[in-house]
Amino acid sequence: VRSNDNKSIGFLKTENRVCVALSRARDGFFIIGNMDILAENSQIWPQVKERLLQHKALGDSLKVYCQNHPETESMVKEAVMFDSKPEGGCQRMCEVALQCGHSCKFHCHPRDPTHKDQYICSLKCEREKSWCR
């Protein structure tokens, strides 16, 4: 449901739809939005909010980790914060050794970890049988 001026929560007001959404959440359930508006405009959401508060599962940010560097974590509070991770990884340089011997010059990226499809060497190279450009 998109944010709107009249604080309408649309189909999230319908108890059976909320129950279906909650019961199908096997590995996780994230609500990105305004829990107070949900709780103020339905009968089921105050119960959900209370349960989340009891389990300390309600917050104002989302902790995200880099797939390639799991020790690198950040707390995301606003969508604009994802702009600093354009490739979906962290801000570290990839530096994986490519077939040609050069290192990857892109920022950390979870896509194409083998560097065979999208991330090929962009350096000029005089090596025999070079994969470089």
Q: Using DSSP, what is the number of strands?
A: 2
Which descriptor suits the 3D outline? Answer: elongated
Helix share of residues? 10-25%
Main sheet overview: 2 strands, antiparallel
Q: What structural category arises from helix and sheet content?
A: alpha+beta
Catalogue the unreliable spans.
none
- Please indicate the count of domains: 2
Termini gap: 47 Å
Q: What is the residue-mean pLDDT, rounded to a whole number?
A: 84
Strand content: 5-15%
Q: Report the order of strands and helices.
A: HHHEE
Main sheet: strand order: 1-2
Rg estimate, integer Å: 22 Å
Counted by DSSP, the helix tally is 3
Protein name: DNA2/NAM7 helicase-like C-terminal domain-containing protein
Organism: Graphocephala atropunctata
GO cellular component, one term: nuclear RNA-directed RNA polymerase complex
InterPro entries: DNA2/NAM7-like, DNA2/NAM7-like_C, P-loop_NTPase
